[in-house]
Design goal:
Layout (H helix, E strand, L loop, with lengths): L9 E3 L4 E3 L2 E4 L12 H13 L4 E3 L8 H10 L6 E6 L1 E5 L17 E5 L3 H15 L4 E7 L5 H18 L2 E8 L3 H9 L4 E5 L13 H8 L2 E5 L17 E2 L2 E2 L2 H16 L4 H7 L7 E7 L3 H9 L8 H9 L1
Parallel strand pairs: 3-4, 3-14, 4-5, 5-8, 8-9, 9-10, 10-11, 11-14
Antiparallel strand pairs: 1-2, 6-7, 12-13
Helix pairs in contact: 1-2, 1-9, 2-3, 3-4, 5-6, 7-10
């Protein structure tokens, strides 16, 4: 078996951080879509640490603070790790009797999310995140999903994060989104040094290669690739009915396209999930791939996908038909 590409780590941002090819996405341990108990969440994080993973990404949005709390408890005093979290949604006590969360997390909504990209909102959000994580600083902070809040992010969030970076409270900052167009604007119009793009630079969707990646290369901005399975369709070696694509049921056309890609992978002696994890790492602007993990078993299976690189000819054959 060969070592994964850039096993010694690629730069993440311009502040001296380095990461391996795989990062731990902690939305799942915030009860994304289904419940995970405390013990299973802790086992997942500790299995990742034991396997050598050192980058963990979370957000207040994930389980209404549950992901940050569980991650902080599982990491404990461990400091030889990189942690990123996000700003843009401030949590506050919910009015009335708490009910189930309405944004995809299996939690009781005792608090509510409030969009807030102001300077004060960013500072309050980071203060709360530090408390939940049990840390005295955060390595990377992303402005989270500012799709409908471009002006507020530009006027409030980014200047606040730039101030915190100068003060040493954080090492790097950027934005995390499910689109590449606005991320590209942020790369060109702010001094961020890392972006998290979800679902737009994958085997099945290469849109970020047209705008975001060239801009990042020009501006020395690192890319974290998330959503590499496009919500699940590429996580199966044989995509079929019921597959999810970008948080919704996949269409017949999307399933057929994924099955074509899976067939090409088989012809090259590999699988679609294997290709999905490795494809973003082919671009030098991509520092790492984030994958959601909710159990020690998922950590082991995700790491197995990194054991060998796919043959280089696979990428040309996929590009020819997708």
């Amino acid at each position: 078996m060969t070592e994964p590409q850039h096993a010694t780590g690629r730069p993440l941002g311009r502040g001296g951080l380095r990461v391996g090819p795989l990062g731990f996405g902690a939305a799942a341990i915030g009860n994304l879509f289904s419940e995970v108990d405390d013990a299973q969440a802790t086992e997942a994080v500790r299995a990742a640490l034991g396997a050598g993973l050192r980058y963990f990404d979370t957000a207040p949005h994930y389980g209404l603070g549950l992901s940050e709390t569980r991650l902080g408890a599982a990491l404990g005093p461990e400091r030889d790790v990189l942690v990123s979290t996000k700003v843009g949604r401030v949590l506050r006590p919910a009015a009335g009797d708490p009910g189930p969360d309405t944004e995809g997390f299996a939690v009781t909504a005792g608090v509510e999310r409030v969009w807030d990209f102001s300077r004060d909102g960013v500072l309050r959000s980071i203060e709360s995140s530090l408390e939940r994580l049990g840390r005295d600083r955060i390595d990377v902070v992303f402005v989270h999903d500012p799709d409908d809040h471009f002006a507020e992010a530009m006027d409030g969030a980014f200047p606040a994060l730039d101030e915190l970076r100068r003060q040493g409270v954080i090492t790097s900052y950027g934005a995390g989104m499910n689109q590449s167009a606005m991320l590209t604007r942020f790369v060109r119009e702010t001094d961020l040094d890392v972006v998290l793009v979800a679902g737009r630079y994958t085997v099945l969707d290469r849109g970020a290669a047209e705008d975001l990646l060239p801009a990042c290369a020009e501006r020395d901005v690192s890319v974290v690739a998330g959503g590499v399975f496009n919500s699940g369709i590429s996580a199966s070696a044989e995509p079929g009915p019921g597959a999810m694509y970008d948080y919704r049921p996949a269409t017949r056309t999307e399933i057929e396209r994924a099955r074509r890609a899976a067939g090409i992978c088989r012809d090259h002696g590999t699988t679609l999930p294997h290709a999905a994890v490795h494809y973003p790492l082919c671009d030098p602007t991509v520092s790492t791939v984030l994958i959601g993990m909710r159990s020690a078993q998922e950590v082991a299976s995700d790491l197995q996908l990194l054991r060998e690189e796919p043959p280089r000819a696979l990428w040309d054959d996929l590009a020819a038909v997708l």
